[in-house]
Amino acid sequence: MPYYQFHIPSDSPSAGLKGEIAAAVTKVHTAVTGAPARYVNVAFIELAPGNLFVADQPVHHGRMVGIIRAGRSPEVKHDLITGLADAWSAVTGEPRDRLALFLQEVPGSMVMEYGETLPEADFD
Q1: Of 7, 43, 56, 98, which residue is the least packed, with the fewest Cβ within 10 Å?
Q2: Nearest-10 crossing angle of helices 74-92, 18-33
């Protein structure tokens, strides 16, 4: 279910590390949530230099939007987002304080995988 989409400058070192980043993201997600690796989706959008900004300043480090199923505890979500940031930094060598990560939650009923709508999560 999770869908992690990274926006990265095409001239950044991370552009050449997509496979390693995807593996690290999958490892973090499965370790933190217990979800099977086959459901972890990771996508990359490469942007030409000068097409990624914060306010009016160009950004040279990645940005991530992650969509996860609603219902996880605040502790799990904290472990997930910090684990993803640490994994990104470990693979790319980019400092954590230059990366921006955003997690969004959606109900299971709003996700279809392999032809099936997901059940609502019961993580308790």
Answers
A1: 56
A2: 160
pLDDT band at 48 (very low <50, low <70, confident <90, very high): very high
Question: How far from the centroid of its chain's Cα atoms is residue 23's Cα?
Answer: 11
At 68-117, the pLDDT tens digits run: 999 999 999 999 999 999 999 999 999 999 899 999 999 999 999 889 89
So where are the chain's domains?
Answer: 3-59+69-94+110-117
User: Span 3-59+69-94+110-117: which CATH code?
Assistant: 3.30.429.10
Q: Report the greatest alpha carbon distance in the chain.
A: 45
Q: Which residues contact 31 (CB under 8 A, 6 or more apart)?
A: 83
Determine which helix (DSSP H) or strand (DSSP E) holds 37, and give its type and residue range.
Answer: none
The angle at the Cα of 120, spanning 114 to 121, to the nearest 5 degrees, equals 100
CB-hemisphere CA count at 13 Å for 55? 1
